[in-house]
Amino acid sequence: MQVNDLDHERLRRLAELRPRNGHKVLSVYMDLDPATFGTQPARAAQVSSLLDAAERRIRAAAVDHATRCELKQDLGRVRDVLRDGVSTKGAHALAVFASQPSELFEVLRLPDAVPQTVVLNDTPWLDPLVGRGRTRRCVALVSRRHLRVFADTPDGSMREVAELADDVPGQHDTGGLSQANYERSIEEEVRKHLEHAAAALFEQFRRRPFDQLAVGASAELWPEFERMLHDYVRKRTLGRFDVDVERVNAEQALAAARPLFDAAVAEQLDGRLRRLQQALAQGERAAGGLAAVLEALSERRVETLLYEAGFDSPGYVCPQSGWLGVGPGACPSGEGNAQPRENVLDDAIAAAIVQRADVFALVDRPELGPHGGIAALLRF
After folding, report:
1. Which residues contact 74 (CB under 8 A, 6 or more apart)?
2. Which of 27, 121, 125, 313 is the most buried (most CB within 10 A)?
3. Is residue 260 domain-shared with residue 290, that is, in the same domain?
4. 161 lies in which domain range?
5. CA pair distance 125, 104, nearest whole angstrom
6. When comparing pLDDT for 171 and 73, which is higher?
7. Lowest-confidence region among 56-70, 183-197, 293-307
8. Which of 77, 105, 133 is the C-terminal boundary of a domain?
9. 3-state DSSP call for residue 300?
10. Residue 362: half-sphere exposure toward Cβ, Cα within 13 Å
11. How many Å apart are CA 287 and CA 176, to the nearest integer?
12. At 265, is the pLDDT very low, low, confident or very high (cuts 50, 70, 90)?
């Protein structure tokens, strides 16, 4: 079963970190995809490659002797983790962030593979984590007699959290008027069960709120059950899928529901892009291009940050005020306080996360091309 240690609060905490006095953060991403690194020799070779890359970056860093010693200690802790210092069962990637002066040492197990990467920067390198913070999901399986409810857990797996069974008689063929009366009686019992199941699902929502619900139910039962759902639950429902309600386990239930969850992510992105294009055309509540986006981030006006995967552009950041810009001249703390960045993207991502903006990295989408690969929807 896949695991995911990343949540919105952890991502926000990493984004807020701003080491002082020239201290650096070592960010290491290790790919655990079993298709590529499923054997011990392949994984050991990747560990050696990552550690060698980290050592080279530390040697080449423009830092003083004390900072270089701290980074070497950080690398030692990273080395211990990568060499079987943490359980990787169920993970397809590891992200490790280390900065001794900032009291940072964070290890995250991720459910999807990421490219192996080593970054030595003034802040944690968060670009590979964009879009991986979990949405709270729920899966409900409904039959004529049973309700089973599965919910996300803190470690990224899904477990069964509620079950309901009603005594609904089975159907049989006796013929005549008695058969018709018997079938009407059964259907009334099924209706009561669905009503009971809908109420139980709403009670589960009250105890453990969720953002998205996928329902495993037959095409015959679904319309009536959907009508019975409480408005709070119905508005979070993505739709129906087919599944063997009584026999599947949690992992199989999630696998069957995953197309609905994936479609919801794609639909959300499409909706943001449509809003962006309309807002840019009208010249309001949108920013297109790096300079406009950084200005909006500095003013804490960004609702959604969108950029092309692999976006890379230099810029400046002010460690005192958090200001971002393409040149140092507009820094409110003075031009001399603006620090250059070879790629200002991660500072932009961190600023967006801190102000609770959504962040989307676009892959194989042309919409941002006219804006240099980056744009934003604005709150005001």
Report:
1. 26, 98, 99, 100, 105
2. 27
3. no
4. 137-266
5. 13
6. 73
7. 183-197
8. 133
9. coil
10. 22
11. 71
12. confident
- pLDDT confidence band for 172 (50 / 70 / 90): low
Beta strand 315-317 pairing with 339-341:
antiparallel
Both tokens of 249, joined, read 């386990």
Q: Which residue among 104, 133, 162 closes a domain? A: 133
Report CA dihedral (38, 39, 43, 48) to the nearest 10 degrees: -160
How many C-beta atoms surround the C-beta of residue 266 within 10 A?
A: 9
Residue 73 to residue 98: CA distance in whole angstroms? 9
Mean pLDDT (the chain) is 88
Do 103 and 217 share a domain, yes or no? no
Residues 152 and 119 in one domain: no
Residues 124 and 145 in one domain: no
- Domain for residue 273, yes or no? no
Question: Can you spell out the DSSP letters for 162-207?
Answer: EEEE--PPPP----HHHHHHHHHHHHHHHHHHHHHHHHHHHHHHHH
Q: Count of alpha carbons within 13 Å of 373, Cβ hemisphere only?
A: 10
In the 8-state DSSP scheme, what is residue 70? H
Domain with 195 in it: what CATH number?
3.30.420.60
**What letter does residue 327 receive in the DSSP assignment?**
S
CA atoms within 13 A on the CB side of 26: 32
Q: Which amino acid is at 130?
A: V
Do 120 and 172 belong together in one domain? no
Q: Which of 25-39, 178-192, 314-328 has the lowest mean pLDDT?
A: 178-192
246: tokens are 């009584």
- What tokens were used for 201? 């699902």
What letter would DSSP give residue 134? P
Please compute the mean of the pLDDT values over residues 8-35 and round it to a whole number: 85
**Domain match, 240 and 350 both:** no
Both tokens of 105, joined, read 């040492």
Please give the tally of structural domains in the chain: 3
128 and 167: one domain?
Answer: no
pLDDT by residue (tens digit) across 238-251? 999 999 999 999 98
12 shares its domain with 88 = yes
